[in-house]
Amino acid sequence: MLYTFHKMFWMTSLSILGSFLLVAHFANAEDDFIPLFNGKDLAGWQPVNTATSTWSVRDNLLVCSGKPIGELRTTKMYQNFILEVEWRHMKPKGNAGIFVWADDITAKGVPFHRSIEVQVLENDYGNSRGHTTHGDIFPIHGAKMTPVNGRGGSRAFPTENRSLPSPQWNHYRIECRDGEVSLAVNGKLVTQGKACSPRKGYICIESEGGIVHYRNMRIKELPATPLHARDVAISDRGYRSIYDGINLSNWTITKGTWKANDWRLNQSGSDGGIIQSEKVYTRPNVIVDFKTTENLPDFNFAGQAWDVSKYRNHLAKGKGWNRLEQVVGNRTKSLILNGQTVVKDIPLNASQSGKIQIKANGPTEFANLFVRPQE
User: Fold this and answer.
1) 11 CB contacts (<8 Å, ≥6 apart)?
2) Residue 100 counted as domain residue
């Protein structure tokens, strides 16, 4: 009897110890989270194509004004991780999102990145056959993903409606592992996608009209795994936006009718117009998107004039957007139009500097104006 008692005592003790160690293991695992937003400032974050007024910090909250449409991204790239965040819309029908595995800057002709988007919609936005307001996940602007719960397209739909309406708080837990992404809304897994590309990149918070508050944003990095170069997003090339979508305070207009139209910069005068940056840049790399149905614009990037009409066969068809890139090396510079090099390695004046000038030869839309100075 005594032997049996001792045996039972030790078995019970070991069981209790095992349970304790298991609980301790999971507790320690949860402790591996670190803040992604410190509640004080935007340390660790980089505005991509928005104004200084778009993002603010107050009362330990990250506040998005919703204007203009654009992005705030992390300064660090992430591959495998768990992201937790609480969010709330402050007005009905608000729109926003969280992007994972994003490029450094926005895709051509849009204010958003190539990435996987985790939707953040307010309930009054309404559900439809094409979307819900309860945590859809989908690839955008060249990214790829196979939905686990789809409706014939690339969008993954939640299996249950769990998000709460404004101004109540919602909790998201986003897990990204080896190209698979999942979302738990208010404590329950509802949305999943797989076979994602890219599967390493930046995390972005989207401004898209809705006034949104974020808090308790934290991240736990998971062990990295081998991946192909094609599955890695474009890392920070040093580009910074020179148009904030709110006003033209850093620009000088010498001709035409120019207007800050949210993420687009419009020139509507039929006689065209000229606008240039107030700042002087030295040997800059430049990116500008443009769209027009009439005469093509001319560009002068820090003393280098470019006539894109010479390269019509590389232009987008119809009313599509075009992306023009001036790429500067140590001794040469090149021009890329819609991904094709149209001018290669012409001599560079080492002291070349000047302003960024745009000449519209009719009504034209511009967007995604980025500069990387060679200083």
Assistant:
1) none
2) yes
Residue 18 lies in a domain: no
Low-confidence ranges of the chain (pLDDT < 50): 1-28
- pLDDT at position 172: 98
144/181 Cα distance (integer angstroms): 12
Q: Are residues 275 and 291 in the same domain?
A: yes
Measured CA to CA, the distance from residue 2 to residue 5 in angstroms comes to: 5
Q: For residue 23, is it within any domain?
A: no
279 conformational bin, left if phi > 0, alpha if psi -120 to 50, beta if neither: beta
Domain that holds residue 308: 241-372
Which tokens is 154 given?
């690339």
- In whole angstroms, what separates CA 226 from the centre of its chain? 24
**38 plus 154 within the same structural domain:** yes
3-state secondary structure of 2: helix
242 Cβ neighbours under 8 A, 6+ residues apart: 250, 277, 279, 356, 369, 370, 371
Is residue 136 a contact partner of residue 191, using CB atoms and an 8 Å limit? yes
Q: Rounded distance, CA 45 to CA 249, Å?
A: 24
pLDDT of residue 207: 98
Provide the residue type at 105 as one letter: I
Q: Taking Cα atoms as reference points, which of 125, 73, 75, 117 lies closest to residue 97?
A: 117
Which residues make Cβ contacts (< 8 Å) with residue 362, sequence separation at least 6?
270, 271, 272, 292, 294, 295
Is 171 inside any structural domain? yes
d(CA 122, CA 153): 23
Check residue 5 and give its pLDDT. Answer: 43
pLDDT tens for each residue of 148-205: 999 999 999 999 999 999 999 999 999 999 999 999 999 999 999 999 999 999 999 9
In this structure, are residues 56 and 66 in contact, taking their beta carbons and an 8 Å threshold?
A: no
Alpha-carbon distance values, 176 to 75, 205, 227 (Å):
18, 16, 14
The reported pLDDT for the residue numbered 19 is 46
Q: What is the pLDDT of residues 201-233, one digit of tens each?
A: 999 999 999 999 999 999 999 999 999 999 999
